[in-house]
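Project standup — Tuesday

K.O.: blocked on the structure for the chain from last sprint. Re-posting the sequence here as requested.
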Amino acid sequence: MRIKKSCIVALLAACCGIASAQITDLETSIRDEKAVTEKKDSTKWKWGGMFGVNASQASFTNWAAGGENSVGGNGMVNLWVNYIGDKSSWENTLDLGYGLLYQESDGLRKTDDKIDFSSKYGLKASKHWYYAAMLNFKTQFAEGYNYPNDSVRISNFMAPGYLTGAIGMDYRPHPVFTAFISPITARFTFVLDKTLSKQGAFGVASGEEYRIECGGYLRLVYNQSFLKNSITVISKLDLFSNYYANSGSKAKPQNVDVNWENIISFKINKYISANINTLLIYDDDIKMPTGKKDSEGNDITEGPKLQFKEVVGIGLSYKF
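H.V.: unblocked you, prediction finished:
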């Protein structure tokens, strides 16, 4: 009997030892996994982007309702690199876009053209506020014409080109929304095309290649995904009020320049998506050309107008 009891006690002790060892191993595994997860979540640098190519084509043969053969396509690239620290942040984005359309009667025309780079650095001031400085650069790749007159060039690379530098405060109440407020902003408008600079295009004085403005600036950015990243909405609103302008021009702080871009992306599957891209611009310094000339042969222009562009497409895309 004593032998049996001794065997039972030894067996129980062995079982307890094995269970204790398994629990210890499990705790160690959980602790190691938690450490790896925390290390992954505390990564300072994060980066990603999206590439997209959309195409369209139409062909007509003896079509009673009428129509015109055409083929078109546009591509877009969105890249971002961010550094998120305990006391500071640095956000960088690059947006590129270009599109062409060919029609039998009109030939080749540009439908989209964009270069937009932005960099913003901030030092944490409180829970949601950062002291921040921002740099933004915008221009286009190629020449633009006053269609249907393709002999009148109205824009070009660095004509215009916009360089904006601002110092202010950045409000970040949520990861999907930021508001950058700057009472001290300098904006340079470049027109490096000699023909356009002689015309005084985009607010520069006739013959000048650049213009300097100083004023207040507000930039709102909203970036949110829905339905397990199937729908992505990106909205960027830039407002600029000019306190001072050089080249003898008069500042008009009440005439606020507006640049509002919206991108809505619908993910169909891993490589196919549909995109809606809209851009609304109002710039008090941009006089809209009419393509007409007066009796002395000078170009006739009108005052500033609300500009709107929409690009809708479906095609290949890759997001990472």
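K.O.: great, moving the ticket to review. Residues 1-42 form one domain. The helical segments are 2-41, 194-198.
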